[in-house]
Amino acid sequence: MVTALVALAVGNLRAQDSTAVQRAHWMVGGSLGVVGSAGERAPAEFTLIGVHFTQVKPGRVGADISINVMPRLLTAPALAGAARVGVALPLAVAPGMLLLPSAGVTLVGGAGPGGGGGTAGYNLGGAAVLGTGRVGLRTGLTWHRFKDEGSAWLLEVGLVKRHVGN
Fold first, then answer.
1. Strands (E), the chain
2. 80 CB contacts (<8 Å, ≥6 apart)?
3. What are the pLDDT digits (tens) for 76-100?
4. What are phi and psi for residue 42, nearest 5 degrees?
5. Of 158, 144, 165, which Cα lies nearest the Cα of 49?
6. Which of 28, 42, 93, 97 falls 20 to 30 Å from 10 in CA-CA distance?
7. Each residue's pLDDT tens digit, 38-47
8. To which H or E segment does residue 132 belong?
């Protein structure tokens, strides 16, 4: 995956084509996520609903934040969720297609009547955003490694909307 992303990165990026100032924008969206580990998908109650915020500066690293909850567990006297905070490098590979390789820190936690707990780790992943307008389809796959607890993957599908800023 890294080799493919490096090969794509040597292409002409719009940020390098012009001396005009290009404004950064944020992509804000919602997603459904499926969690798994060791090649197997977790049971349906571990499905995640999330919101993510990605700062898009053409050809430059920007912030990438995702907050997720497990809605099935919200009906029980428990709360479980995860957050991913890191950076992404937007790569415009074709008209209407943006690749977002990313890396960062992952935080997972939960609380219930018997107590609570959490763990931290790091993540590596990538997403693709398809769409030529202000709304697009985002799909992503992220691998998460946790200290002493192993690793997990997260497959997400959702919609994003672009918000232009300074």
1. 25-37, 40-41, 48-56, 62-69, 79-88, 91-94, 97-112, 115-130, 135-146, 150-164
2. 69, 70, 73, 109, 110, 111
3. 778 889 999 999 999 988 988 999 9
4. -75, 160
5. 158
6. 28
7. 878 888 878 8
8. none
Long-range contacts of 130-139 (CB under 8 A, 24+ apart): 130/96, 130/97, 131/96, 131/160, 132/95, 132/96, 134/161, 134/162, 135/159, 135/160, 135/161, 135/162, 136/27, 136/98, 136/160, 136/162, 138/27, 138/29, 138/31, 138/52
What is the enclosing helix (H) or strand (E) of 11? none
CA distance 101 to 125: 6
Question: Token pair of 151, please?
Answer: 């690793």
Question: pLDDT category, 146, cuts 50, 70, 90?
Answer: very high
Torsion, Cα of 153, 156, 162, 166 (10° steps): -10
Q: What rounded mean pLDDT belongs to the chain?
A: 83
54: left (phi over 0), alpha (psi -120 to 50) or beta: beta
